[in-house]
Write a structure and sequence with these properties.
25% of the residues lie in helices and 30% in strands. It has 193 residues and is α+β, with helices and mostly antiparallel strands.
């Protein structure tokens, strides 16, 4: 069972108290775990694949709050000279995405600190949007469903194009239609709920 966030934070605090250097902690190092942990600032950790651990451990990583305020990204700063700094995102580095490349890195499980190779994939902006969770203010509790009078309408979007899936009497029927439509239209990036 992987450690909880509280356990990781307490471990980070203990390592700090003991004076252990920043990138020497690896969860379950004796056994071949499916991932290793790299300590970040703010008492957080990033999960990485075992084959990337040593390579990524050569740098000090920080936890940067995401622009939407939900979660953190693992980042480091690279000095370019002339007082210029470049922010390097761990997930983009693992996927080999250069600065200026418009390809995005998508986290399959939506955890921005899970940077294992199994969890990361290259995506277009549209594909990355398909994998977003339902908005907190969604009245239906599901992506792609809105109330229209006394009926529920289901719609999917892909590459800027809208796909109308139908109008339904109940939200449950609309959710089922969205789930089927999303699987066909979004493919592997489908995240209906």
């Amino acid at each position: 069972m992987p450690p909880t966030r509280l356990a990781l934070r307490l471990t980070a605090q203990l390592l700090h108290i003991l004076g252990v250097k920043h990138n020497v902690f690896s969860y379950n190092r004796e056994m071949e775990a499916p991932y290793r942990l790299i300590p970040l600032s703010r008492g957080l950790f990033a999960k990485v694949s075992p084959q990337d651990f040593e390579w990524l451990s050569q740098w000090k990583w920080n936890a940067m709050i995401r622009s939407n305020g939900r979660g953190h990204y693992a980042v480091r700063c690279a000095w370019l000279g002339d007082n210029k700094v470049e922010t390097i995102y761990m997930h983009r580095l693992i996927l080999g995405l250069e600065k200026g490349d418009r390809t995005q890195a998508d986290h399959r499980d939506l955890d921005p600190l899970n940077n294992t190779r199994e969890n990361l994939r290259k995506a277009t902006q549209s594909q990355n949007g398909m994998n977003r969770p339902v908005r907190r203010d969604a009245s239906s509790g599901t992506k792609g469903i809105r109330k229209d009078g006394n009926r529920w309408c289901a719609t999917c979007y892909r590459d800027g194009k809208q796909y109308y899936l139908g109008s339904f009497k109940t939200v449950e029927e609309a959710r089922e239609a969205y789930q089927i439509g999303s699987a066909k239209i979004h493919g592997e990036f489908s995240r209906p709920f």
